[in-house]
Amino acid sequence: MYTDLLLPTDGSPETAEVLDHALAIAGAHDATVHVLYVVDRRHHMAATEETKAEIRESLEEEAERATAEARSRIEAEGLTAVTVEREGVPHREIVAYADEHADIVVMGTHGKTGREQLVSLGSTTERVVERSDRPVLVVDIGDASP
Ligand code: ATP
Ligand code: MN
Hints:
Elements: E1 4-8, H1 15-29, E2 32-40, H2 49-76, E3 81-88, H3 90-101, E4 104-108, H4 123-131, E5 136-139
Parallel strand pairs: 1-2, 1-4, 2-3, 4-5
Helix pairs in contact: 3-4
Bound molecules: adenosine-5'-triphosphate and manganese (II) ion (MN).
Adenosine-5'-triphosphate binds at residues 8-10, 12, 36-38, 40, 90, 94, 107-108, 110-115, 122-125.
């Protein structure tokens, strides 16, 4: 049923919890797990050239760390991992990548910003659920929504 699963990550520690679910599905289907980190262009759009380079560099380091961490867990399960870094607006890149390379998406209710006290779904997840044609499994992390 599933051959390619997409796990988008923003490097938040909760990714580990989301990965548990992703691995259960991927393991059952022997699916390849694609780990996608999007360097959020909005974080450095308004910055000066110098600051822009610094911000991008630190986001790229985070991308490297987050995807490598996920990769080792995926490979430890005997599954194939594909790690990808893209730059842009996260939900757009996630939807486009899923459209091209995945048949299911697994992601958390919240990410780095962690506004779980205020909103039941982070904006990236909300938009991916709305805009993607793929099934999206949303894993509730942190406090349950009100
Ligand atoms: P918000 O960004 O709306 O202020 P938030 O950060 O808590 O709130 P989201 O951004 O929706 O919530 O994060 C939820 C999930 O979306 C993350 O767990 C991750 O799977 C995915 N995601 C968010 N940002 C990125 C990113 N830059 N690259 C890849 N995946 C991302
Ligand atoms: Mn976010």
